Amino acid sequence: MDPAQLSEKFDLLIANITVAISNQMTYIQLAVIVSSYIFAFWVAFLIRKNIKTLNEKPFESSHPARKLAFIIGSMIAPIIAIILMKASIEIARTYEVEYWLLQTALTVAVLLFFHSFINAFVASPFPANVFRWVGLPILFMHMLGILPILIVALESISITLGNVEISAYGVARVLIFGGLLFWLGRTSNTFGKAIIKKQSALDIPTKEVFTKLFEVTLFCIVVLLLLNIMGINLTTLAVFGGAVGVGIGLGLQSIASNFISGIIILLDRSLTVGDYVEIDGGQSGFVREFRMRYTVLETYDGKDILVPNEKFISDLLVNWSHKDPKQRYRVDFTVAYSTDIRPMVELIKAAVATHPQVLSGDDLPFEERPDCEIDSFGDSGVNMFVEFWMFGIDDGKNRVGGDLLLIIFETLKEHNIEIPFPQREVRVLNPEEVKGR
Predict the structure, then answer these.
(1) What sequence ranges are listed for the domain Mechanosensitive ion channel MscS (predicted)?
(2) 101-110: per-residue pLDDT in tens?
(3) Among 60, 250, 389, 399, which residue has the least CB neighbours within 10 Å?
(4) pTM value > 0.70
């Protein structure tokens, strides 16, 4: 562009600004914009004043709905201002008066509101950047009315594969709306689970059932919407699904079985979060989370075991904490045959009862007090065992068995009771013959 053309465009811009400043409708539009914002902030102030949930900042541990209400409360004024300016534009269009300044103000207000929405609701950096660098330009072009022109241009860029025509617009639409649906589904799933788990009126198994059903329902809705966006006829898909459903069902049989098993577990309340269980393969741990396909068991050494839900239905399961938090355990030891067993038994009972986590005392039933008995007669000594009851599991921070073995060892040593070494007796049947050799 040469200097003459640049000067001509600059003069035209100055002339348009001069006309706009001297035009009475410009000031009327400016007054409408200012009045819209003043009225919007006044109404928002009254609403937040009368509804404290919208005005008081929640704590970190507050209910998710409480946090959402506070965020919505901060957006009431911009929403009202946008509605008022949009209504003013429609009135101006009806009476055929100028509204270019109103349209500009509305475009800026919508873009700022969308940016505030991203900051408030999108915590992850990657989706936030996608919304800013893709969503904001699309919204800007829509507000200026040039988005349909871009859509037509993208539709003209296409390739044909057999009977299928793939256009640039179709690919862009699937990517944009698919990503949006994925984010909405993930965010809604997290938010919905948090609300369900905050319901104090529901017990833990019921919360898990509702959480799982909510997750599955949301997943189905997202898939159906995505298929619709991709232009797939759901009626045709249903016919096709009926034809291949049996084959797919066989391939997904294990997944379906695990999902249904998870629902059964939650409904019959055989397991709940926090239970300590031991499955048939020997693995044990605390139930931490129920998922669609598996259950997470956390062991005392910090490992997570992912157990398919079907295993809890079909295999043997020991639930240590399902009925009663009290458990019975035993520790074994051996004493020499020369030991006076009866007084030694009373010594061991009294020593074991001194441990703070072992249940003892005259107020307990006889069968729940510490007990010491003979287990068997071994090769080297008398095999004894001590039975005791305690709250919780004898592992991790509640590891009692090792403490009791130390107490038993110290008690035996204090009273000079021998713990025998392995012994073997050798007999010579014909000593004369051995001597002759």
Answers:
(1) 255-322
(2) 888 888 888 8
(3) 60
(4) no
Coil, helix or strand at residue 4: helix
Q: Does domain 326-414 have CATH number 3.30.70.100?
A: yes
Q: Dump pLDDT digits (tens) for 244-268.
A: 555 555 556 777 777 777 777 777 7
Mean pLDDT of 53-73: 76
What are the residues whose beta carbons fall under 8 Å from the beta carbon of 155, sequence distance 6 or more? 167, 168, 169
Q: Which residues partner with 385 through β-bridges?
A: 332, 373
Place of tokens 């589904």: 185
Closest CA to 69 of 50, 56, 83: 56
Instruction: Give the residue-averaged pLDDT of 267-286.
Output: 78
357-393: string of b/e by CB count within 10 Å (b at 16+)? ebbbeeeeeeeebbbbeeeeeeeebbebbbbbbbebb
Q: How far is CA 333 from the centre of its chain?
A: 47
- The structural domains of the chain, with segments of one domain joined by +, span 15-143, 326-414
Write out pLDDT tens, residues 144-179. 778 888 888 877 887 877 666 777 877 888 888 878
* One-letter-per-residue 3-state SS of 40-98: HHHHHHHHHHHCHHHHCCCCCCCCHHHHHHHHHHCCHHHHHHHHHHHHHHHHHHHCCCC
**What is the overall mean pLDDT for the chain?**
79
Q: Sheet of 326-335: strands edge to edge?
A: 326-335, 382-391, 371-377
Q: Which residue has the tokens 């009431």?
A: 76
In this prediction, residue 344 carries a pLDDT of 92
Residue 238: predicted pLDDT: 59
Q: Is the pLDDT of residue 50 over 80?
A: yes
Token pair, residue 417, equals: 């009771």
141 Cα distance to chain centroid: 37
Amino acid of residue 319? N
Q: Which two tokens stand for residue 261?
A: 């098993």
